[in-house]
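Recall from the previous chapter that SMILES is a line notation for molecules. Here it describes zinc ion.
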Amino acid sequence: MTADLELTARQAAKALRDWTWRQPETKAGGRGGTHIGVGVLRCALCGGTLVGSDMATGWYASIALYSCADSDCEQTGVPVTEVDGELETFTRKRLAEPAVVARWRAAYLAELDDRIAEARPVLPWCRDQRRRRQLSRRLALFDGSARCVSSSMGNLFFFGAELADVVYERVRTAGESKQGRSIRELTQAAAEWRTLWRDIHGVARRDVRRVLGRRHLKEIYDEWDRLQERLWDLLNETDWQYPYPARLPLQDRAMDQKWSQSPGVMARQRRSLLAYALGDDQLVVAATKAAGSRVRVDAPASDDAEQS
Ligand SMILES: [Zn+2]
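With both inputs in hand, we obtain:
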């Protein structure tokens, strides 16, 4: 493999930490607060953006509103719960259309592929024992290391576990595939390493030595090495067998609860699904209802219409 020559230990350590701790900015999800509609919704009166605000309803109570960002605008605030309920209905309807599902799948797979491609150059440093020691020394610069799981071990663990999740997400988003190893091997290997991590990550080394003896501590570390090496080997694979149909966007956990009753829950994922549902259209919110709803869908402004 030539990829391991592309990074030095220092670069690999930095890439590993960046990849693990930076939440990827999905093209659709973007940044934003806990209100899904902020940055997406437009004001029906002035066409400006809507922001989140609170209105006091008593000494201690308040309700969350979407209000116009322009303080001079006459539009009054609209309750977030009410609008989010309409956004959920809209998202469900759109994401059930085959063309929208196809668009979502292509874009989401591309995002996952980017994320996997960014992790790949680090893998050779995880797999090879000598290089892993070099990498660990880099990761251990600020390591207290009185715990069973030192911070460098923890860094490698979080990187491996998260990468296994992303690979699994990619496989089930793409759907049925008959080539390669069974994806269960990967999810099981990651689950076993997670279990060991959960058992020992908060435990001090000297306590294990005192209670169970030095030999037991060595056994724990041998097991740790065995589990992580298996996962690195599996993560090196590129083809995975998966016997089920591709998952659908509406099977996302962000759709489990009613949006109107749980505003702010999984806001990033919900915003991402809403963006896929919306495509190039725009959502306009009015303070008064028209035909039972406050949210209206507008086709994109045609000021950049084709010139022929
Ligand atoms: Zn306005």
